[in-house]
Design goal:
Elements: E1 17-27, E2 30-40, E3 47-54, E4 60-68, E5 71-74, E6 76-79, H1 80-92, E7 97-102, E8 109-117, E9 122-132, E10 141-145, E11 170-172, E12 179-187, E13 192-197, E14 205-207, E15 213-217, E16 228-234, E17 241-245, E18 261-266, E19 281-287, H2 305-319, E20 325-331, E21 335-337, E22 343-344, H3 347-358, H4 370-378, E23 387-393, H5 400-409, E24 414-421, H6 427-436, E25 441-444, H7 450-461, E26 466-474, E27 479-483, E28 497-505, E29 513-522, E30 525-534, H8 544-557, H9 566-579, E31 586-591, E32 604-607, E33 610-612, H10 618-622, H11 632-639, H12 650-656, H13 660-665, H14 674-689, H15 694-711, H16 716-726
Parallel strand pairs: 1-12, 3-32, 11-33, 19-20, 19-23, 23-24, 24-25
Antiparallel strand pairs: 1-2, 2-9, 3-8, 4-5, 4-9, 6-31, 7-8, 7-31, 10-16, 12-15, 13-16, 14-15, 17-18, 18-28, 20-21, 20-22, 26-29, 27-28, 29-30
Helix pairs in contact: 2-3, 2-7, 5-6, 7-15, 8-9, 14-15, 14-16
Length: 738
């Protein structure tokens, strides 16, 4: 979404932005967005304005136009160098011109130039894009309208021509007087259960008995202190589907848009599998730059990013499997490794890591990820322990494409899981490194708990590998499918899989059908998911599927303006221009050729400022700092031993709220190992007192139960029964397998 960054320039001259209007249409799991910025030049001389705004990196921007004093000027998508040349030529000849492009250094930042805006002139700039909506763990579809664009840290080796380096001025949020509106229509044939948002909404209006459609809009008074997030829950479980869309052979006699395109959506039925004998090497790369001292959000009592990170690392350390290897790197302008090399997971190494985690501070300056990544990749692989990399960062960097390239170059030896922390984290960086590294990405904003999302991701990383992934088509004679999106090599339980194909040849008559089959193997067993679909393409004037297909292709081939290999650049340019979807090598250019005479008067530059988020200072002082010792769950988890057990001591007794002597006296079996009694009590406490946070402790609790089964043996049943009675809890003994 376009989010310009303010209304006043450095010298307090008025910048003519009057309003931002966003119209959103969500159908099933695809969003179509139209964002319009309305400007008026109230000054006495012509202006050239420049502004920067965030955009989710998955967005396929396919249309840009300007309405100038009632006349529409449609932009053309051209080679970026050619577009820049046309813009400069138009400006020098006193013509009105408009330029829209991706930033040179990141796919989630856009720049727009408006040249020669005449005194008294009104302009409405509109861009349109389509986007797949990601699926959350709880089944919700998540749409985010980016609002926060934080300053991006520029290292000494970063390129200097990022539009974020233009030093556009900033103003406080309460000095942004423009109007902002968002209206949305959500529709699903399965019905809508509910819609949630992190921002105040007007009452939702549902349409139809089965609530197949809903109208929502943002309440008045929104401030640009957070991204606008919608969580959409449909009434039925998501099901596999194939949609076929007509091409446009008349206007596109050649290329991607000519023939029908298909969008295939699978929800693979990956079964529960036995734990793998291969443990893995787990490396955690944690951002400790200065910005990590900010709260996760501006909501009241929001936890500081660095404190949430420390809690998360403790949970991850306690949840690691026995016999694995691990290491932790903290980074900023410099970096530090906890150990010279990854070490075997044991009581000693875990305790050493915990000591250092508790001392972690957001004190390492800027955000330089590339160097520690290179150091990690230089370490030799540990036989039988594939590398699993977890990256936690607020994502405020400019050398995004270089980092993605580094991860991509090592994709065959590891999986990369990424977490964007706080408002404004770079979607280009977070999603990009996970996509090329065969992992998954998560964003932690608002009331999200980093701990829950990190532990869910660790569960995925511990899954046995799904192998031999392939897609087979069964189509009528004379019709073939060519896959446009990259081959999927990694699948996770609960994950949605979307891919696109170009259908060429002769379509069958009415009622013709095709079939597509997803095949994979897991622990030596073969599985397949099939879906049958109609071969009667539907017309969509926006060519949504074609443009999403083009975006999927560009994400796999377009590695940035400087990083894309020459052998790929030709295909990137062709697909981008054929489909109208912007890439790092193309830009939209519009020139107003209807002016009777050149624009008169000296041209003044107006850089539209970004609003200043005050959370880095004032909000921090208002936030309650949660010390690890005050959080009983984290404290209990901190006490757990590497093998999954707990010791019967004063620290455990304090958390349980029971005198240690009473705990010792209540041991139901004479001469039994006190650790067995302590571990059973700890597990009962988790189920009784922290049930709502089970997703955060279930892996370490599993280790505890395995330890109990091995060490308590025949007395396990007595220990469990006595612990439930002694603590007066209603925990079901079945959680222990009794």
């Amino acid at each position: 979404m376009v989010r310009p960054s303010g209304l006043l320039n450095r010298k307090e001259e008025p910048v003519p932005l009057k309003s931002i209007c966003v119209t959103l249409s969500i159908r099933e799991f695809v969003a179509g967005v139209s964002a319009t910025l309305n400007y008026e030049n109230e000054e006495k001389f012509p202006l050239e304005t420049f502004f920067v705004f965030p955009m989710d990196e998955d967005s396929a921007v396919y249309n840009f136009e300007a309405m100038v004093d009632g006349k529409i000027i449609k932009a053309e998508l051209k080679d970026k160098k050619k577009a820049h040349s046309l813009y400069e030529s138009a400006i020098s000849h006193r013509r009105q011109a408009f330029l829209l492009e991706e930033d040179m250094c990141s796919r989630d930042v856009f720049c727009c130039n408006v040249g020669n805006l005449q005194p008294g002139s009104k302009v409405a700039l509109t861009l349109k894009y389509v986007q797949e909506l990601p699926l959350e763990v709880d089944g919700a579809l998540r749409y985010v309208l980016p609002a926060v664009l934080n300053p991006r840290y520029c290292s000494s080796g970063s390129p200097v021509d990022s539009c974020l380096n233009m030093k556009t001025p900033i103003v406080p949020l309460d000095e942004l007087p423009y109007a902002f509106s968002v209206t949305a229509t959500v529709s699903s044939q399965h019905g809508i259960d509910r819609i949630q948002s992190n921002c105040p909404l007007r009452p939702t209006e549902y349409i139809g008995d089965k609530k197949t459609s809903a109208q929502i809009s943002l309440a008045d008074g929104h401030k640009f202190d957070r991204d606008v997030e919608l969580l959409i829950y449909y009434s039925e479980v998501h099901t596999p589907s194939v949609a076929v869309e007509l091409g446009n052979p008349e206007n596109n006699p050649d290329g991607l848009m000519k023939d029908p395109s298909a969008m295939v959506c699978f929800y693979p039925n990956i079964p529960e599998a036995e734990p793998s004998a291969i443990c893995g090497e787990f490396v955690f790369l944690m951002d400790c730059s200065g910005s990590m001292h900010c709260p996760i959000s501006k909501q009241d009592k929001s936890q500081l990013r660095i404190e949430a990170a420390k809690e998360t690392l403790i949970l991850l350390l306690k949840s690691l499997p026995i016999n694995c290897y691990f290491n932790i790197y903290r980074f900023g302008s410099s970096f530090e490794a906890f150990f010279p090399n990854s070490v075997k997971y044991s009581q000693d190494t875990m305790e050493e890591a915990l000591k250092r985690v508790k001392l972690m501070r957001a004190d390492l300056g800027g955000t330089e990820i590339l160097t520690p990544l290179q150091i990690i990749y230089r370490e030799p692989s540990i036989p039988g322990h594939p590398l699993q990399l977890f990256v936690f960062t607020d994502g405020e960097v400019t050398d995004t494409f270089s980092i993605i390239k580094e991860v991509r170059n090592h994709r065959l030896r590891h999986r990369c899981f990424s977490f964007g922390i706080g408002e404004g984290a770079s979607t280009s960086l977070i999603k990009g490194i996970a996509r090329v590294g065969g992992g998954t990405s998560e964003f932690i904003t608002g009331k999200d708990r980093m701990q829950a999302k990190a532990l869910s991701t660790l569960k995925r990383a511990l899954q046995p590998a799904v192998e031999d992934v392939s897609v087979n088509w069964d189509l009528p004679r004379g019709l073939s499918a060519r896959k446009l999106s990259p081959e999927q090599t990694v699948l996770y339980k609960g994950q949605r899989l979307i891919f696109y194909a170009h259908l060429t040849g002769t379509l069958p008559p009415a009622e013709g059908t095709g079939e597509v089959c997803l095949n994979y193997t897991l622990q030596g067993k073969s599985f397949e998911n099939k879906v049958t679909f109609s071969l009667q393409p539907k017309l969509d004037d926006n060519f949504t599927i074609h443009r999403l297909a083009a975006k999927a292709f560009l994400q796999s081939m377009d590695m940035g303006f400087r990083e894309t290999p020459a052998k790929f650049k030709k295909d990137v340019l062709k697909v981008s221009i054929d489909s109208g979807v912007i890439s790092s090598h193309t830009a939209f250019i519009a020139v107003n050729k209807d002016l009777d005479k050149p624009v008169q008067g000296p041209l003044a530059r107006r850089d539209i400022p970004r609003p200043m988020l005050l959370g880095a200072t004032s909000v921090v002082t208002q936030c309650k700092r949660v010390d690890l010792g005050e959080n009983y769950l984290v404290q209990l988890i901190t006490l757990q031993n590497a093998d999954g057990s707990w010791d019967l001591d004063e620290s455990l007794a304090r958390i349980l709220g029971i005198n240690l002597k009473d705990l010792q006296a209540a041991l139901p079996v004479k001469d039994a190992d006190p650790s067995s009694w302590a571990t059973v009590l700890a597990v009962v406490w988790l189920h009784a007192k922290a049930k709502h946070q089970k997703c955060e402790w279930e892996l370490l609790e599993l280790k505890a139960r395995i330890w109990i089964n091995t060490n308590a043996g025949s007395i396990k049943k007595k220990l469990v029964k006595a612990a439930i009675t002694f603590t007066n809890s209603s925990v079901n003994p079945g959680v222990f397998g009794i």
